[in-house]
Amino acid sequence: MEGPQEGAMEPFQVGDSLQIGRYFLEVMLHEYQQGELELVPASNSSSSTDSSSSTDSSSRSSNHELNLGPMVIDMGTRSFRAGFSGHYSPCAEVGTLVSRRMSSEEGRASTIIGKKALLYSDAETIEVMHDGFVINWEAAGSLCKYLLEHKLQVNPNEHALLLTEPLFSPIAGREKMAEMAFEMLGTPGLFVASQPVLSAYAYGKINALVLDMGHEATRVVPVLEGKSMARSSKLTDIAGRCLTWYLSTLLNDAGHVLSDGMSHMVEIIKRACYVAADFQSECLLPPSSHTVDISLPDGMKLTLGKERFQCPEVLFNPPSSWGESFVSIQETVRKCLMHLPKDIIPTMSANILLCGGSSLFKGIDQRLCHELLDHLPPGLMVQVGSLDLKRHAAWTGGSILASLHNFQSCWIRRDEYHESGSCIVHQKCF
């Protein structure tokens, strides 16, 4: 298990501050390490010293059961990611493949996590997520339990848990999340935070336009003063799943027919793709400039050529035959910006942040910036941020938040849950 690596990421700058509800995240050092960030009241911090000291002493005894360090779990459509707060990236990840199989010996159903389910023809696959939302909380709880107990080898009863949630998460879903955390996992503390907001925190921002490019969809979400402007967000169906399908089509057209059971390799082949700075110019280059050989697990070699830049080009120029819901990412960003109050547009356009697995293509940030400059009003500054860990941006933001010393008073505690019920998640989680 690895901690933060030196020089891997510097999510904050000296003097930055993130306002979260009633608190400020004060960044006191140029390099983030656990314990270096402080949460202080957003009101007059100097006048509240006496009262805060009494609060600290009264809450110290209730903090003892959380002293082993919080865990962070980011629940995505294709995978769940987990790790210890204070780390830059998650320590464990598991795909959302859950199956149930009847045991002939014991006469009861057993849950199978991951690719092991493919070994049993009689296993029933359970759909855990749909369109980014959990639809089977028992299966989601099994995945979380597997991550914590088997992958990270920790006892969920001894660690507070920060869970991420997607935009427009239903009220019932939030309450189910609390029930899963306290009743199935037995966590002593829980906090639920918005994925776009956490992604902004990973970049050290409280004001940003988060471009979250996932598997099911791509969404542009304005984050203002540490809160998501959900109603101003825009969505397009251009996302990971259609890119995978399109690359499969390109490979078939080029004569690369994958053997049975190898269709999942398209996801791996997709990693070799890149975004062209200028698509037409790229097409005129000699094939040797973009040809690469990829070794497949079955021993075969696949030569990838112009498909490398043809695949992600649909992010910027989706075929009209795909339908009106497949809008280019630059147009989705433009629509979002132009529907915001005029006074915050310059701030948002200068803080466009990429995150999600479909934002990993090399060159995507420069191309997006160029496209936006051509389609936005002249004189508007456009900057597109891109972190090495942008696939895990929401998790990283949660790791930063959960590691703060004074944030520990924000947890929903086990006794509070049992006293108030699952509805307490709406009262304590901003």
UniProtKB/TrEMBL annotation:
Pfam families associated with the record: Actin
Q: What positions belong to coiled-coil segments? A: none
Q: Which domain of life is it from?
A: Eukaryota
Its cellular-component GO annotations read: acrosomal vesicle; perinuclear theca; sperm head
GO BP term, example:
acrosome assembly
* UniProt-annotated stretches for the region Disordered: 40-68
**Which residue windows does the record flag with biased composition (Low complexity)?**
43-61
Q: Which InterPro entries match?
A: Actin, ATPase_NBD
Q: Indicate the family of this protein.
A: Belongs to the actin family.
Name recorded for this polypeptide: Actin like 9
Q: From what organism does this protein derive?
A: Coturnix japonica
- Lineage, highest ranks first: Eukaryota, Metazoa, Chordata, Craniata, Vertebrata
